[in-house]
């Protein structure tokens, strides 16, 4: 009972909007506070120099920021708590909606009542229908791409036709993309780092965060025949693995990206500037983006529609139609379907002979 109430609470729009408002507000506050770069936090000498510069600029306020941990605001519990609640509530919302969505995807009951069809947003009634008209209804719906199921007994026939029923799963994909995105952002905030390496040709530097040696084997500037620069090429050896990288063509080793960002040339030597970046949240963010794109595309372009029908023993055929608000052509399609069935039934009935021997 508690979990059910918690799931219903987490699915409320005002709860999600409130958490998002708190996160945006905290993000704005955090963006106004000087933040300690992760690469400096791992280097005691650079950390001490950074804190000294902060105290010199802000005085006692700088001491308060350092002591309170505000310089690492986005890794503080004050920011992580609402983020974690948003992640938890999103997961609970998915679990809360899963059963209902899965039940609708499997398909509801075929049998229905005349009251249900009469109260449908779109309804129609055709008297004295035949089996041929019933078969025509089924064939038209199947041609339109509906999944048609039929049940019959001695007294009545029932039909349920659904279109784009699997598209309802796109809602879950969109919600899952939000979870993956939140996880990716948390990973980036907590575990990502960036480090700059200046390595002369023939020398080796160590990536402090990962304790990985990087050796500069050679650096070439490729030029066009007119002497202009065509590209910059760097030959590296990372823990015995040789690779050649260019500008905008980084080397990825054990999840660490090595970007060639520049070079420094002096009369004595040439040194390259490498940017080592580790961001475990990048891949989840890309995956979440594709998931959200797919989910929203399916949701907006494949609205679910449903038509149910019953033919009672007296021959009256009743139709009822339901559709998402994005199914803009459903009303016209339903009216056309009902008119087609009426026309078919009128053409089937024999002409009535009146008393003077003429026919109508």
Could you outline the blueprint of secondary structure elements for this entry?
Blueprint: H1 2-10, H2 13-31, H3 38-41, H4 44-58, H5 60-68, H6 77-106, H7 114-118, E1 122-126, H8 131-143, E2 147-152, E3 157-163, H9 169-191, E4 193-200, E5 204-207, E6 212-223, E7 229-238, E8 241-246, E9 251-253, E10 256-265, E11 270-278, H10 282-301, E12 305-311, E13 317-323, H11 330-348
Antiparallel strand pairs: 1-13, 2-3, 3-12, 4-11, 5-6, 6-7, 7-8, 9-10, 10-11, 12-13
Helix pairs in contact: 1-6, 2-6, 4-5, 6-9, 8-11, 9-10
Structure commentary:
This protein has helices at residues 2-10, 13-31, 38-41, 44-58, 60-68, 77-106, 114-118, 131-143, 169-191, 282-301, 330-348, and strands at 122-126, 147-152, 157-163, 193-200, 204-207, 212-223, 229-238, 241-246, 251-253, 256-265, 270-278, 305-311, 317-323. By secondary structure, it is of the alpha+beta class. The strands form 3 sheets. A 5-stranded antiparallel β-sheet has the order 1-13-12-3-2. The chain has a 4-stranded antiparallel β-sheet with strand order 4-11-10-9, with no helix packed on it. Strands 5-6-7-8 form a 4-stranded antiparallel β-sheet, with no helix packed on it. A hairpin with a 5-residue loop joins strand 6 and strand 7 (229-238). Helix 8 (131-143) packs antiparallel against helix 11. The protein starts with a helix and ends in a 12-residue tail after the last helix.
